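Let us begin with a simple case.
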Amino acid sequence: MSYLEKYNTTLGFYEPAIFHLHTIGRGKLKEMNQWSIQQKSTFVHEYIHFLQDVTTIQGLNNMFIKGEYIRYISKMIKDAPHKDIHVPMNPFSMGNNVDQNWKARAATMGTTEPVVKAISFSKIHITNLTDNISGRKIPVEGILVECINRNLVKGNVLLGTLQMLEGMAKLIQDSIYPTGLRHSPYNPYYIAQDVADMIIPNLSSKPSTMIALFVLALQRINPGCDFVDYLQAKAKNKFNADTLTPDIIYEDLKRTTMNFNQLGVLNYEESHKAFAEGAKDVISEYLGEVWYWQNINKWFQSIVNRGYELKLNSPFVFQNLAAGGDIISNKVFLSLLEYFGTPIVTNNAHDYEFIRPNRVSVSKRELINVYAMMQVHQVFLSNGIFKCPLRKYCQNEPCGIRKQKVDKRCLTHPWERMRKWNRCYFNTWWYFKGFKDVKITL
């Protein structure tokens, strides 16, 4: 387990594109005003990641990539003459552009190497991707940051999407609940700020500007490179920490264009809409157009649409959130909570929680199915043994259509818990998706 994984396991985590948020402590959502500062601070950090999922191109693209993988597997299973499926099913060699999308994501994600200080950075060529439809070669570049680790030895870290996601969430968290010290791992939480200072000195002392830069990066295809390229261009034009403002960054963002092989050149609004539609399309297919999940689909469509509208109409929402103080009285946070609700929220007591968005009819028990089905891709990526993450919570609450006890299959082969009228959350999706006769083999 990496240093970052240990840190996240201790305090809390959010699973991108899976819609599950976990916080330290035993306090429930309705008792938020009684939470410790640590639990509130952890919750707001992970809630930012939930908002990043539905308001940024990177978040939407991550949903699309995982959904596309399941769509491809579903087609393979449907067309197969038998239902013996060998795992793992490697997305990096699937073809049909599934492989290229996973390779692009891996190349631009960034690394979690534990370091304590950045010294310098350079641009490098990482790989070439090939569009399987057009045959066009697409070069991928990255930003390599030379650092010093805890043993005072030099090493390299790739700056990417991870550093933008975590840097932004940590910055907002620290603005609301300042500690004065950097308790979290340097990489990925603070390294992007220090890289920014290498290009435009003292820029990290401007939290509002840094938030705008993170948003700009996450609205691009290659966040690490675009973050650095943008700052270098501004430095070349004599901008400094005082003259580079959020207004300028957002105006530049609205003027940017991206070139997509099949869609052509799209502006900022068109690009965001294209990614939003792609995410909604694969999630709808994830749900299989089953009547049982109609409310879930409406929930997902609603929050993605709201994320799109929020970024276009309220570009400074994250700055205002950071300046709003304690989440108990933070007007921006409370309005976001009402507008987007929450994903499934769990705590150390193994409680399920959920706040539904305003004007969206979906229940907690329905949304647990989202958490279950969005874990299913892990089965096909596994070595044939998959520990269902719902197990501890199913011990506390009614599981599936009727209450049933967990058993050892939940720890190894949850897809085998197939009972016609008493399916768990995992197997409800597995059954309706048409996988009931699938046999997983190594």
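The second case is a distinct protein. As before, the sequence precedes its structure tokens.
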Amino acid sequence: MDKLTAQQRHKCMAAIRSKDTKPEIIVRRGLWSMGFRYRLNHKRLPGHPDLVLRKYRTCIFVNGCFWHGHLVDMSTLENSECCKIPSTNREFWVAKIRRNKERDREEKRKLAEMGWHCITVWECELTPKRRKETLESIAFTLNHIWLQDHSIPIKQTTKEKEQPILIAAEDEAQ
């Protein structure tokens, strides 16, 4: 049984934001300080990604562990270390989290078909102990995506394959 009245519960639930959440702001500030530029909540893309980096053709979703069922096994409906399903009105919450997970999967599929890369950052990955590691991981992934998308394939003939490739600081005489 819920301890709050219907009006109190409505007021609490209405106060939950979908934009400008603390985890999202942490990611935004971290990426901005590393020199990455982005757009917020792009309306034309499926799922309205939290951050859109057009240069990298990448969308970043910053998900709350509870709302998106992080590490929850939906077949057994067991809690995870960062997502506890409420015991009151459990059927409602299980259905809601299941719908959210399915919608997230569908949106990422649509973005991939459009040629976009997707990165999901979980709220539990942004704790003070893990924050720096997570932001560095995002930066590494973005740089890797950019290099992969902008690499130029080099075709070598059989004659070139036999000769060793010189490094910039080497002499031919060695």
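Residues 90-113 form the longest helix (24 residues). The radius of gyration is 22 Å.
Keep these points in mind for the review questions at the end of the chapter.
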